[in-house]
Amino acid sequence: MVKAVLGRVGTVLLAALLVAAVALSLFSSFPKNASADEEKYLCTWQNGSVTEETYATAYGDFLSDEDGTLRLLRGDLYGEISATEKYLSVVQTLEEGGLEELLALSIEGVTRLELLALWRLTRGRVWYSAGYFVWDGNGLKEVGSAEGEHLILLSGSISASRLRAAGAKQLELRSEAQITSQTLTGTSVESVTAYPPYFTDGGVIYLDTGTAVRLVAALPNSTSLTVNGNDYADEGALLAAEKLETLTLPFAGNAPVYGNYFHGEVAYLFSNGREYFVPPTLKRVRITGGLLISHAFYRMNAVEEIDLCGMDARVIAPDALADCTAWKRVHSPNANVQLSGRFSSYVAPCGCTVFERIA
After folding, report:
1. CA–centroid distance for 88 within its chain
2. Tens-digit pLDDT profile for residues 275-307
3. Each residue's pLDDT tens digit, 34-92
4. What is the DSSP string of 85-145?
5. Are 116 and 54 in contact (CB under 8 A)?
6. Tens digits of per-residue pLDDT, 111-161?
């Protein structure tokens, strides 16, 4: 009886040892995650010295950099730790990749210090493509809602309400993104970075279609805008710039000359498709080219200063400024313009006629 029991115990122990041995053999075939003390990093300091760091010693001096560089600041001395190829690959995908690439990201092979860098790099960032995505420490995960100062529009469009809900102040446009001025209207976006075919200049977003450059949108917080280099403009392209005070355009409306879809009113750039919403803060407008049709300044009632210097006098309609009732100063290459009220005039050195309202 005792022998039988001992035999069964021995068999169980032997089986357990065999299982443990197999498990140990399987585990040893995978790289072990190093602890805070086991991982070692060589840090090269700006004075030329090199120190060996652990996660514990590096953590307190670790800097959070937007470019993902592993940098330490100890006292007043900067140091840099070389990153692994895997980490650099993950950072590049986060900065440039599409949704499919981002969802396939793996942190296998990334060091513990690099995981900290990734956490800080992605903190406050939200990715969007028909839904919100955030970095959870292991990869990109879809969530029902998210808040962050930096929103990356990967593809498709996002509504102004969703952009507002995210609280984004920085907007990043990837190549497959779609945006209109209405997307930005009423949001907190203060800056935009863009990948081709989009590009930005002076608070204005353009789209290079390959055959022409479109004026697409302006930032909501813009008070002064200079538009140039575009071939045509989208309807309502400046609608989001609700605080605009000064505006310079290469032509009035959506194109420099008449065409099948020509709209020559300046206010067309502030249209929501149904009405014109020219900001009452807009006081100064300069137009440097194109043509000026009759009533080109329709609904621009608050504009006080108009500069048409540089335009061809022959393409300015006499009643182009007929709707301007608040004007105080008009600088025109054409002396034959219809203005309401009493004014004085003189010829400027450029040859234009300057009209000034007499109060």
Report:
1. 22
2. 999 999 999 999 999 999 999 999 999 999 999
3. 455 579 999 999 999 999 999 999 999 999 777 788 999 999 999 999 999 999 999 99
4. HHHHHHHHHHHH--HHHHHT---TT--HHHHHHHHHHHTTEEEESSSEEEE-SSSEEEES-
5. no
6. 999 999 999 999 999 999 999 999 999 999 999 999 999 999 999 999 999
User: Amino acid identity of 51?
Assistant: T
Query: Where are any strands of DSSP class E within 164-231?
Result: 170-177, 191-194, 198-201, 204-208, 213-218, 224-226
Q: DSSP code of 34?
A: P
This prediction's pTM: 0.84
Amino acid at 28: S
Amino acid at 245: E
What's residue 37's pLDDT?
Answer: 57
Q: Tokens 């307190």 appear where? A: 60
Alpha-carbon distance of 173 to 205, in angstroms, equals 10
CA–CA distance from 35 to each of 55, 136, 284, 307, 318 (Å)?
8, 21, 63, 68, 80
Element of type H or E holding 162: helix 160-166
